Amino acid sequence: MNLNQVTVPSKNVATSIAFYKKLGLHLIVEALPHYARFECLDGDATFSIHEVEELPKGDGVYVYFETKQLDQEVNRLIKEGLEFDQLPTDQRWLWREARLKDPDGNQIILYFAGDNRKNPPWRLER
After folding, report:
1. Cα(108)–Cα(28) distance, rounded to whole angstroms?
2. Which residues are registered as beta bridge partners of 67?
3. Superfamily of segment(s) 5-117
4. The model's pTM
């Protein structure tokens, strides 16, 4: 089994499209006002947005996008006008992360983990 797509809810898909294009995702399906799909520039995963009447309550969705050039990417996005809740920070789980929210409040984490993503020192044996 392989995870190939994540979909997040949005009250305004067009507004969300602009946000995710700034992040650097490539728009491949635009079915306004209800749906949009992007492809990630690295790998085969896709990411989509679907229109909802009401957003989920509580913490909502967390989406992680990995980039080797985390600090440079965050600086680029700040120049594009995006506001971060957390600038790049080294975490105790050996990832470097920056956090922001999309227009609908979905948590977006830009990070770099390298080999620690799948092989942290505390990884369980098979």
Report:
1. 20
2. none
3. 2,3-Dihydroxybiphenyl 1,2-Dioxygenase, domain 1 (3.10.180.10)
4. 0.93
